[in-house]
């Protein structure tokens, strides 16, 4: 089920118009569709954030009475204010799978050694309504000297992996190696110190 977001076409674009829009509680947006021209519009920030909190992924963008099924393709954040600068939507077709980037959430710690995360997102394919918020990775199931490849990820039902299966997601290095690295860094700092008079 999709949630409807009422949108207004943007007559003016640019940084000045966008700042004014955000000051009035709106978010500048665009809709990308390979079969049509890009549409620029705005939506209300509070409505969009409420949908995100409810874990909605499929939206009906209502523009001039016409609904455009879409998913979020990219969010651009203002990291100083923690507000959304821009949302880029991707047009989709109900019942047709779409590829999307999904973040990984690492749960727990390895039974031994130090976890090194190499990838924090993977590309999956699923129906728009089944796009997960995140994919959990049980780091607690890994041990020293082990590595986790993308093919070993447990994906939610209805999702298939697009990222190459041999992609290394994380490795677990020995605790001794980590301690040696820290020790070497500490010794290097000590050699660089100037003795006091």
Give an account of the 3D structure:
- With 197 residues, the chain is an alpha+beta fold.
- The chain is 18% helix and 42% strand.
- The protein has helices spanning 15-23, 45-53, 175-191, and strands at 3-9, 26-32, 39-44, 59-63, 66-78, 83-91, 98-107, 114-117, 121-126, 134-138, 147-149, 160-161, 168-173.
- A hairpin with a 4-residue loop joins strand 5 (66-78) and strand 6.
- The chain is elongated and about 60 Å long.
Main sheet properties:
6 strands, mixed, barrel
Kindly report the CATH topology of the largest domain: Ribosomal Protein L25, Chain P
Distance, first to last CA: 74 Å
Total beta-strand segments: 13
Q: Please give the CATH class of the largest domain.
A: Mainly Beta
CATH architecture label of the largest domain = Beta Barrel
- The low-pLDDT segments are 180-184
Adjacency order of strands in the biggest sheet: 1-3-2-6-5-4
- Overall structural class, as computed from helix and strand content, comes to alpha+beta
Helix content: 10-25%
Strand content: 35-45%
CATH homology-level superfamily of the largest domain: Ribosomal Protein L25, Chain P
Tally of helical segments: 3
| Helix and strand element order | EHEEHEEEEEEEEEEH
Can you tell me the overall shape? elongated
- Give the overall pLDDT as a whole number: 86
Radius of gyration (Å): 23 Å
Q: What is the domain tally?
A: 2
Describe the secondary-structure layout.
Blueprint: E1 3-9, H1 15-23, E2 26-32, E3 39-44, H2 45-53, E4 59-63, E5 66-78, E6 83-91, E7 98-107, E8 114-117, E9 121-126, E10 134-138, E11 147-149, E12 160-161, E13 168-173, H3 175-191
